[in-house]
Design goal:
25% strand, 15 strands, 4-stranded antiparallel β-sheet, single chain, alpha+beta
């Protein structure tokens, strides 16, 4: 368990509050995201909402030199899409909005896929399967389970549907720092790896590709895309290992 920070009861309460606020950000986005909106407009509205309405800190802003409060990953973008004034959502797009929020010293991290109204059926299927894969991983979380159980469950759902799992990026421990131990792989073998114990908090955030798992980073140093230009999807939640199972700290109202 080297490097893993186990959260106290008081710290868990603060993690819950951070997660609750982050769900409100997605509720806010739900009310107005649509074709014709630029990804920079999404970024700026979310920035103002987190700071002015929630009195919280957008944790991604300034992290590793990043100049925005969220990642907006459209279509073939796997992750770390950079908001842009010139990138306007089209009616056929799918887009992942990935947001981190810090309140009272603790960070929550979540992402959601938004499917525009004219997205084609294969895009919708990829988004739905990726969501199922994330939840398959989450359902493995309980004291005594192994990290490999999570990855194996995610991988099985993705590959059964004919998709591939991106291996270069993974989930991670989270708390006072955005990235803590352990790493949470989205592939692997059941009953292998670290044993889960109560008080652990981490993200599960599979990135699933329609075609090949191969990716590349664009010249901006951030945007990661599929090499074959086929679609990619991602969902993410922050979870807590409880005494008898799992609590999703970023659970949204439509999921409850």
């Amino acid at each position: 368990m080297q490097g893993v920070t186990f959260k106290t009861a008081d710290e868990i309460q603060l993690m819950r509050e951070s997660g609750r606020l982050l769900t409100q950000v997605f509720d806010y986005i739900d009310s107005w995201i649509e074709p014709g909106v630029s990804t920079l407009e999404i970024n700026d509205k979310v920035h103002n909402f987190i700071v002015d309405e929630l009195k919280a800190r957008p944790a991604s802003l300034g992290q590793y030199g990043y100049q925005f409060v969220l990642n907006s990953s459209v279509n073939e973008v796997v992750c770390h899409g950079v908001p842009s004034k010139s990138q306007i959502l089209k009616s056929s797009d799918i887009v992942n909005i990935d947001i981190t929020l810090e309140k009272n010293g603790f960070i929550s991290d979540s992402s959601k896929m938004y499917v525009m109204p004219d997205a084609l059926l294969p895009a919708k299927k990829l988004v739905a399967t990726t969501y199922q894969a994330m939840w398959a991983g989450i359902k493995m979380v309980k004291p005594g389970a192994k990290l490999g159980d999570i990855g194996a469950a995610v991988q099985q759902v993705a590959e059964k549907a004919g998709y591939t799992v991106v291996r270069e990026y993974c989930g991670h421990g989270i708390g006072r720092e955005m990235h803590e131990a352990p790493n949470i792989l989205h592939y692997g073998k059941a009953n292998t790896g670290m044993t889960l114990k109560p008080g652990m908090t981490f993200t599960i955030e599979p990135m699933i590709n329609q075609g090949s798992a191969k990716i590349k980073t664009k010249k901006d140093g951030w945007t990661v895309v599929t090499r074959d230009k086929k679609l990619s999807a991602q969902w993410e939640h922050t979870v807590l290992v409880t005494d008898d199972g799992v609590e999703v700290l970023t659970l949204r109202a439509e999921e409850a």
